[in-house]
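Record type: monomer structure entry
Structure origin: computed from sequence
Chain ID: A
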Amino acid sequence: MSIGTHEKLALRILSICIYNSDMTQSPGRATPTDKANPVAVEPLIAFSDVHIGLGEGDVLRGISFEVWPGETKILLGETGTGKTLIMKLGAGLLRADSGRVWVMGHELSDMSEQELLDFRRHVGFVFQEGALFDSITVAENVGFRLREEKLPDAQIENRVREVLRFVELESTYDMFPGDLSGGMRRRVSIARALADRPPIVFYDSPTAGLDPVTSQTIITLIMRGRDLQDVTSLIATHRVQDAFGLANYRFDKALDRVVHSNGSGPQAARQAGNARRTGPTNVLVLREGNIYFEGAAEDLLRTSDEYLRKFLASAE
């Protein structure tokens, strides 16, 4: 879809619930829902010919892609290819040198700093190292943004316990981040990102530095958010197995566990129903500041491209 179309159409998404309906809107833009039309007609995230340079030359050299409601887009690539830059651009933490970034109906380059602050209240961001405040408790970390929104104390406590239960860490409510393992800190940061029920969550290398078992726990949590809460996600990772895990498995609510996306019988029928309600999981591979591959994980796995085959063989 061309960017001109983005300028002419309002972003309309029924199934995505934005926590604060008073979020600042760009002039002339409609709210991103249209209850008369339950079908998403615009992507939730759209990059168009985005360039950004740090130091010598451009790191991103004309990046264009879209993320649709309910979709999980996984950014893969070698170190320095711009995965984290894309995340920060999408979350409004950086501005592009040129090109346009649309998120939830907002062109971020048109927004003032105050508007960007308001905008960021409606996206979740999981930083690579968790970025928790060590001087306050787990509960206070998770409820930080809710207190900024001045929600009633009882509602904050209920929401904090709900998301800690979701990441299976309710027992850490009164603990401090320094008392937790690296994997537990990462799970708390996911709980914090989900606390105010954002329509979009950005995950920056969520499994980096973790052992394989803990990494799988984190991927399962992201999968649960996708399949149980319809969260739209943009994930930067160096772990190819994270991409294939998210693409080939899903969380079955009835069975309360992860199941393979393929198969037959009643279980497969339930999975097919889930697949109709949530968006696909797709992969985007970056190389030298450009998009080298974009598509389904199974297509990446079957590729005959020499560079991609070497990348897959060398990646974790």
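Annotation 1: The radius of gyration is 19 Å.
Annotation 2: The longest helix spans residues 212-229.
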